[in-house]
Design goal:
It contains four helices and two strands, in the order αααββα. The chain is mainly alpha-helical and about 140 residues long. The chain has a two-stranded antiparallel sheet. β1 and β2 form a beta hairpin. The longest helix is centred in the C-terminal third of the chain and has 43 residues. The chain starts with about 30 loop residues before the first helix and ends with a helix.
C-alpha cells in the first residue's frame, strides 16, 4: 500500500483573493452639499457653539479628573496600604468596603450631576442652535 500524506484541514492556508483597488476620481461636491458644509462650519465657529462647547468642557474635564483621582486613590490604597483598608469602621464593614461602596455612590452622583448640568446649562442652547442650523439648510 502506498503511504498517504496526511493534510490537516486547519493547517492549510486558503488562497488569498486578489483585491484591486479602483481609482476614484475627485468629483466636485454638489452645490447643496457645499452649502451644508459652509453652514456647519459657520455654526462651529459661532459664539453660541463655542459657549456650549466650553460649558461642556468646564464640567466634564474637572469631573472626569476628580473621579479618576478618587478611583486611583482607592486602587493605590488597596495595593499599598492593605492594613489601613482592613480597619473596621462599623460592625463588619471595613474601610475597603466603605470606599468600594463609595465608588458606586459617587458614580451615581456624578451621573446625576452631569444630567442636571446638561439639562440646565446646555440642552436648551444646543436645541436652539440645532433649529437655527436646520433653518439655514432649508
Amino acid at each position: 500500500m502506498a503511504q498517504q500524506e496526511r493534510v490537516d484541514w486547519w493547517a492549510v492556508a486558503a488562497p488569498r483573493p486578489r483585491v484591486v483597488a479602483q481609482r476614484r476620481t475627485a468629483e466636485p461636491a454638489p452645490p447643496e452639499e457645499r452649502a451644508g458644509r459652509e453652514v456647519y462650519r459657520s455654526v462651529q465657529e459661532s459664539d453660541a457653539f463655542q459657549e456650549i462647547r466650553s460649558g461642556y468642557r468646564s464640567f466634564v474635564f474637572p469631573a472626569s479628573a476628580g473621579f479618576l483621582a478618587w478611583y486611583l486613590l482607592f486602587v493605590v490604597a488597596q495595593a499599598f496600604a492593605p492594613e489601613l483598608m482592613r480597619q473596621q469602621v462599623a460592625g463588619p464593614l471595613n474601610l475597603a468596603w466603605l470606599l468600594g461602596l463609595g465608588q458606586f455612590a459617587s458614580t451615581f452622583l456624578l451621573t446625576w450631576l452631569y444630567a442636571r448640568n446638561a439639562r440646565t446649562k446646555r440642552d436648551r442652547a444646543a436645541l436652539e442652535l440645532r433649529w437655527d442650523t436646520q433653518d439655514q439648510l432649508r
